[in-house]
Amino acid sequence: MRPARPTSPSGPGCRRGRCSPGFRRLTEAGLVIGADGAFAADQASLREAARDSRPADDADPGVDPVLRTFLRGDVLVGLPAQRGRRRVVLAHIAEQSFAPGTRYPERAVDDALKKWCAAGGSDHATLRRYLIDEQLLTREHGIYQRH
């Protein structure tokens, strides 16, 4: 059961009765509980959220750990900041989405990449740009191709 939201919020993420968006989201998600200026992390909810967001223990040991970290099925949950890891994820997306030698108009590329972005881990335009930058796709006159 979630506690009622205080009418005049105060606490570490709040000032003058207004909470920061991040603190408000944590409270609404049930990860932070309390009222009247006394807030605390709900440890049971945090454990559950962590358990739900990590890959299953029986994950295929042959799958690259980078892919297990940043993908849930065919959905990107985050884009690695490190270039090497990002390239592993991008190469996987390119291999799964585009056949070598086939020419794709930009709209088809965008449609294929939007499916990967359903969880909000990135947006299709960013993925498209990275795929070009990493030379996993080539672009010429609005036509894309994987080699």
Describe this structure in words.
The protein is an alpha+beta fold and 147 residues long. 41% of the residues lie in helices and 17% in strands. Strands 7-9-8 form a three-stranded antiparallel beta sheet. The chain has a two-stranded antiparallel ribbon with strand order 1-2. A two-stranded antiparallel ribbon has the order 3-4. Helix 5 (106-116) packs across helix 6 (124-133). The longest helix has 15 residues, at 83-97. Residues 3-8 have low confidence and may be disordered.
Strand content: 15-25%
What is the residue-averaged pLDDT?
Answer: 82
Alpha plus pi helix count: 6
Strand order of the largest sheet: 7-9-8
Rg calc: 21 Å
Cα(first) to Cα(last) distance is 54 Å
Percent in helix: 40-55%
The class by helix and strand makeup works out as alpha+beta
Order of helices and strands: EEHEEHHEEHEHHEE
> Based on DSSP secondary structure assignment, what is the total number of beta strands?
9
Principal-axes geometry comes out as: elongated
Q: Which regions have little confidence, pLDDT < 50, spanning 5+ residues?
A: 3-8
| Main sheet: strands, sense, barrel | 3 strands, antiparallel
Keywords:
147 residues, alpha+beta, three-stranded antiparallel sheet, two-stranded antiparallel ribbon, 6 helices, 17% strand, elongated, disordered N terminus
Topology summary:
Elements: E1 14-15, E2 18-19, H1 21-28, E3 32-35, E4 38-41, H2 43-53, H3 65-70, E5 71-72, E6 75-76, H4 83-97, E7 103-105, H5 106-116, H6 124-133, E8 138-140, E9 143-145
Antiparallel strand pairs: 1-2, 3-4, 5-6, 7-9, 8-9
Helix pairs in contact: 5-6
